[in-house]
Amino acid sequence: MQIASKSQVKGCWLLLVTVVSMLLGNLASAKSPDEASLRAAVVLGILRFTEWQPPIDSSKPITICFLGDVQSKDKLVQASSRVTVKGHAVDTKNVISLPQTDVCSVLIIGDEWSGQYPTGVGSQLTVCDSCRFGNQTAINLVKRNQRIGFEINMPYVQANNISFSSSLLELASRINR
């Protein structure tokens, strides 16, 4: 098996972001995608390189839940009816408290959430999208130099039985160990 070079991985990532942006309808116009669309594209890209333990039942969707004011929410809701991730449909759900997150494969936490952050939630990917406590989630979306990137909190990832492909790890802005 041949290992992809870093430039090939970045090229694949750029292609993935472009395709997802097209699905979100922003490249149909002549203007650049807005920040919310880019954040949504990054989240969907991350899901393609994520493994849950135990694996999500193949007959069930990947459920993305939103807690707080999530910047990418509207774009993810729009895209959810048109995309699949690893053969799974994508479903979305608003939640207002942590006990409601049991059905979530992915929990995206936004600004305005002042409650307790999830710990020991089992096999659930947590993403900080403009939240104040990115170090308490597996993924923290960050904006630097007008680009959306992401940081990975490995202790949190490992504690929640999630793994990422090496290709995704290479694309992270920072990996906290």
Care to describe what's here?
Pfam families: DUF4154. This is YfiR family protein. It comes from Saccharobesus litoralis. This protein has one domain (6-176): Rossmann fold (3-Layer(aba) Sandwich), CATH 3.40.50. It contains five helices and ten strands, in the order ααββαββββββαβαβ. The chain has helices at 6-23, 35-48, 73-80, 154-159, 166-171; strands at residues 50-52, 62-67, 84-85, 88-94, 106-110, 125-129, 139-144, 147-153, 162-164, 174-176. The strands form two sheets. The protein has an eight-stranded mixed sheet with strand order 3-4-2-5-6-7-8-10. Strands 1-9 form a two-stranded antiparallel ribbon. A hairpin with a 2-residue loop joins strand 7 and strand 8 (147-153). It is globular and about 40 Å long. The model is unreliable at 14-20 (pLDDT under 50).
What can be said about this structure in brief?
Helices cover 29% and strands 27% of the residues. The chain has 177 residues and is an alpha/beta fold.
List keywords for this structure.
single chain, 177 residues, alpha/beta, Rossmann fold, eight-stranded mixed β-sheet, two-stranded antiparallel sheet, 10 strands, 29% helix
Mean pLDDT: 83
Number of self-contained structural domains = 1
Radius of gyration: 15 Å
CATH domain topology? Rossmann fold
